[in-house]
Amino acid sequence: MRKLLIVAMVFSTIFASDSFISTAQGADEVQGRKVDIAGRQRMLTQRMAKAACFIGSYSEVDKHHAMLIDASKLFDDSLKTLTNGNPSLNIPAETEPSILAELENVKPYWHMLDFATRILIESPETPGLDVNMIEQFNLPALKQSNAVVQTMERAYYKGTKSTGSVRAINVAGRQRMLSQKAAKEFCFISYGLDVEKNRQALKKTIQDFDIALDDLRNGDSIKNIPPAPTINIRYALTQLKSDWQSPRGIYLAIANGVQAHDAEFSTISKSNDQMLKQSNEIVGMMVNYYKNMETR
Question: Which CATH class is domain 163-288?
Fold first, then answer.
């Protein structure tokens, strides 16, 4: 299936902007890499916001300052690559008008988010309104980045039909963004920004993560999600669910009004990085399984 092969490439990498093959590739692979980059943009909006809030909370400032620098640079470079192409990555300039229009629509939101991010990067020792601005601008940037992905999928996958395997890979990939989003919302609540809104958002993010984990393990025929196709994938999902319980308990407590302390910030920071890694490994396992199935 053409769409499955493309989606497999979409979810095969994360944060590795220099990992793409530079030799000439077919149109499907080029399109897959474009969607990969566009999909990664959504996560980067949440990663930047999470890093900014942890800086503002004086929690592992050096670590999150470096994270903010890396995420903002990658977002900016990726937006330019998607629009103008990048010969070193063997990615041509975009020519589809509908995609170009959505990419253009990202720029105003990114300019605002980038402005606030640059201020914080230059003066992490005195966070203030820059963190507030990042809280205000990250969701519009996320929403518009998602519009780019959806437009690419419509343009690139004309005439194709989604399958259960494609749906499963998409759901697994979305877990990575949710991991960043939950940590961001946890921090914004503790920081005192739009507390009630972020409490409700965090409850929804927890629920989305829970449901997706169960769907990926056990399947859901109504949603067209098959159960985990191998013992190893099921085991990895079970391990992720087990490891999720510690941060999940903290998130629920904060969402329900408990005040976070330094110990909770430390736990979330450490577990968040690990969960992101685990989620990415699960995506890779699923991609490899379904790609092998298609080539048999």
Answer: mainly alpha
